[in-house]
Amino acid sequence: MFRILTQRVLGQSLLQQGIRPGAVASASRCFASAAKDLTVREALNSALNEEMSADPRVLLMGEEVGEYQGAYKITKGLLDKYGPDRVLDTPITEAGFTGIAVGAAYHGLRPVVEFMTFNFAMQAIDHIINSAAKTYYMSAGQISVPIVFRGPNGAAAGVGAQHSQCYASWYASCPGLKVLAPYSSEDARGLLKAAIRDPDPVVFLENELLYGEAFPVSAEVLDSNFALPIGKAKIEREGKDVTITAFSKMVGFALKAAEILDKEGISAEVINLRSIRPLDRAAINASVRKTNRLVTVEEGFPQHGVGAEICTSVVEESFGYLDAPVERIAGADVPMPYAANLERLALPQVEDIVRAAKRACYRSVPMAAAV
Amino acid sequence: MAFRVITMKSGAMMATARYLTRRNMTHGGSCCGNHHHHHPPFERKKQQSCSRSLSGFWRFNSTKASAVDVYSSDEDVTNTNHHQGLDFPGGHVSYTHSLNFISKSSTQNRVPCYRVLDDNGVVIRSSSGDLESQLQQQPLISQQTALKIYREMVRLQVMDTIFYEAQRQGRLSFYLTSTGEEAISVASAAALSSDDVVMPQYREPGVLLWRGFSLREFADQCFGNKDDYGKGRQMPIHYGSNKLNYFTVSSPLAFEEACMTQLLLCLNSYLQGDFHAGLNFAAVTESPVVFVCRNNGWAISTNVSEQFRSDGIVVKGQAYGIDSIRVDGNDALAVYNSIRAARQMAVNQGKPVLVEFLTYRVGHHSTSDDSTKYRPMDEIEHWKVTRNPVSRFRKWVEGNGWWNEDEESELRSATRKQLLQAIQAAERTEKPFLEEMFTDVYDETPSNLREQQEQLREIIKRHPKDYPSDIPV
Predict the structure, then answer these.
(1) Residue from B94, B133, B173, B251 carrying the catalytic annotation
(2) B296-318 pLDDT, tens per residue?
(3) How far apart are CA B14 and CA A187, in angstroms?
(4) Which of A24, A56, A362, B235 sits 20 to 30 Å CA-CA off B296?
(5) DSSP assignment of B86-103
(6) Chain B residues with CB inside 8 Å of A202's CB?
(7) Are A268 and A262 in contact (CB under 8 A)?
(8) CA-based nearest residue in chain B for residue A136
(9) Do B440 and A140 touch (CB under 8 A)?
């Protein structure tokens, strides 16, 4: 009886948000009807190209984005195509060029600022937060800031502590910002296009190691009008025993973990968050209400991380549905070490996710004869 | 209450286009930015031990000291040295034998300060007597403009006094005066056009007064009522006006926006990293910006001697390759002339200009400060009485027969009355609606904020005595 009451009470808040349990399925509609393979790099490049072509106010700024074709070649060919008025190589001052870009956005342009990594964006954090994120509010709606900050985030391979931090949770705690984290090429294209078209400042967290990875994409994804909605997660893999949330590179790890778990009789549902702010709480909660178990996965530091917020959201909205404590997988609580063996230990690996899922399922031995 | 956002696309693009055209010109990889050479950068010239080449400089394909053997002879080379030089990236430099460090400026050789009026409000006649410098000293200002400047300086003084008192009475939470610096903001605004976008720090409401912001609009912002253009979201004195091309005051400095368009930037925080990036960028991109620095001697309680050891700010402009000038900020005519000239240079020559106004912050930093704690009372009095920019300009205006005591007292009492009325009206006006707390975080209010707004309404309805009654729900 109590459980039915709690279900009714808890169900109210989801309904108030206008989300019916079935509606989240639309966000997970699979666009990959396997037309061709596209790398994340190509996806980002084509998205930038198309948005610059469609809207003359869009411009690119950053170190090495022009002549050098981009530090990671994401902006390849764009200087040649659009000229130095729209693709600007900047001096090495993040504070400087971020400030300029924000000012340009104040005046109606739509800059896309590339940070060589988001570690360097810390040099410009005052402009990102105080000048960009808060300005629409502080100016009472008079000055909008349609700017995109993009670049690699999180760990790469052997780049040490000052080049490996994940900033998802820092930026996602700020009202006024939107924070996106693509995983696949479809995500990269759709979310970057949406970010450029969005009137609010968007932090777009890419991943260096994913740039070269190829994903199959459908014709729909390749269309120049394609865009993904901001604030909607994607169910990458459906399951019924445990929900695993992840973003960026960890989605790939979660999917591999799900394969391993599947062989052991645990059906894991993998959610690709896509949007860290706004977080798709409805999708996460709907999934947990189905599976009753949750594992959150992220690369960044554990304290005050994305997983902490997801856990709280589920505890607030779906406490009665949890059959086990929420498991939180995150990077080690240390500055990233350089040595390859230590780096591997400092980052979540597939095995960690598998073990966590099993803990959530109260099992650490294969369920051989149980069924 | 709608404001148009002024698009400065053409300005931004102009600035960037100019920057990039120049950049493309030097892209060939030449080491010499300013010369167009056809030789590749480091080409070995034939060994010529004692004779000098006709062009007067050597190029080396190595930067090792041993490659240089120009000094193998004993002859006195000091006279011919300045013809000798080296090409490095950045241009040609002549070299010297003497190991001399450029000394920092001493108190003897500081950059001089431009002024037109002396302390008694009399135009200083140039002692050199030549026509050019005489003409330079002539105030190029009409009676109408001069009187408007004077009136707004007086109104600013009165406004500061009344609002300050209102804060002391507990009617305002905070206020910040421009006492002692009235000439800077008003006369600068007079020298600009109304289209010039001004990015203020926080001690420049004189610009708004000049451009027509009403006393009631100032009061509305200070009281944060529903007529405040900022919807009650900011502390007092954080004025902004799209219509008047005056950027909303924000406490952290947002510098570099200046570089993309033509604007006047008032600043006092020249130690922020932004300052350096901003000046540098403006110089490199050749942006038509006028940077204005109110060097008023104090950064809250930190005296300038603890802020920097350079000769003020004017030399920093020079360091970044920007034409700079130091001006007596308490001399309204000097302010007017210099900003007018600076603006012309910026617009016509497409480059940044830096103007340092020397002045003194007579008032406390703000109502949260008591400056008698860190500086002597008689110093404050001295600047308040003897070096007062308003009375100094008054002497000149009266000296021309354009003003008198009656008009003075009439202006002051009329302004005072208007201010008291504005304050009363602003105080009585309703505060902004509750929903304004939740709007404008994003372009579209997200669902979590709509939810929170509903929840807050419910709570206020249930516990009305816990909430102020003057907030319309």
Answers:
(1) B251
(2) 988 888 888 888 888 889 999 99
(3) 35
(4) B235
(5) EEETTEEEE--SS--PPP
(6) none
(7) yes
(8) B440
(9) yes
List the structure tokens of B373: 């704690």
Question: Exposed/middle/buried for B114, CB within 10 Å: 0-12, 13-18, 19+?
Answer: buried
Residue B362, pLDDT above cutoff 60: yes
* Angle, in degrees to the nearest 10, between helices A281-291 and A2-16: 160
pLDDT band at A34 (very low <50, low <70, confident <90, very high): low
Contacts for A298 with CB less than 8 Å, ≥ 6 apart: A166, A168, A169, A246, A247, A250, A305, A306, A307, A329, A330, A331, A348
Interface check for A99 against chain B (CB to CB < 8 A): the answer is: yes
CB nearest B12 (choices: A104, A139, A142):
A104
Is some CB atom of chain A closer than 8 A to the CB atom of B12?
yes
C-alpha B371: how far from chain center: 23
Identify the H or E element spanning A277.
Answer: strand A275-277
- Whether residue B214 lies in the annotated active site: no
Task: Determine the average pLDDT of the residues in B395-416.
Answer: 96
Inter-residue contact A99 to A124 (CB < 8 Å)? yes
For B252, the closest of A126, A143, A199 (CB atoms) is A126
Catalytic residue among A94, A186, A299, A327: A94
Chain B CB within 8 Å of residue A232 CB? no
Question: Which residues are CB-neighbours of B407 under 8 A, at least 6 positions away?
Answer: none
End-to-end CA distance of chain B: 21
Q: How far is CA B16 from CA A2, A56, A268, in A?
A: 66, 15, 52
Residue A238 bears catalytic tag? no
Above pLDDT 70, what percent of chain A?
88
pLDDT tens per residue, range A123-175: 999 999 999 999 999 999 989 999 999 999 999 999 999 999 999 999 999 99
Is some CB atom of chain A closer than 8 A to the CB atom of B237? no
Name residue B423's amino acid.
Answer: I
**Residues B272, B277, B279, CA angle at the centre, nearest 5°?**
100
Instruction: Give dist(CA B332, CA B156) in Å, integer.
Output: 14
pLDDT score at A32: 52
Residues 6 or more apart whose Cβ sits within 8 Å of residue B20 = A84, A85, A88
Grouping H, G, I as helix, E, B as strand and the rest as coil, residue B117 is strand
CA atoms within 13 A on the CB side of A279: 25
Collapsing DSSP to helix, strand or coil, A208 comes out as: helix
pLDDT reported for residue A233:
98
Q: What is the pTM for the complete model shown? A: 0.77
Nearest CA among A247, A245, A284, A239 for reference residue A264: A239
Q: Chain B interface, mutation test: which of A134, A142, A277, A312, most B Cβ atoms within 10 Å?
A: A142
Mean pLDDT of all residues in A275-302: 97
Those of residues 21-50 in B touching chain A at CB distance below 8 A are 21, 23-24, 27
Residues within 8 A of B (CB atoms), A 138-197 only: 138-144, 175-176, 178
pLDDT digit string (tens) for A320-367? 999 999 999 999 999 999 999 999 999 999 999 999 999 999 865 444
> Given pLDDT bands bounded at 50, 70 and 90, which one contains residue B472?
confident
B256–A96 CB contact, under 8 Å: yes
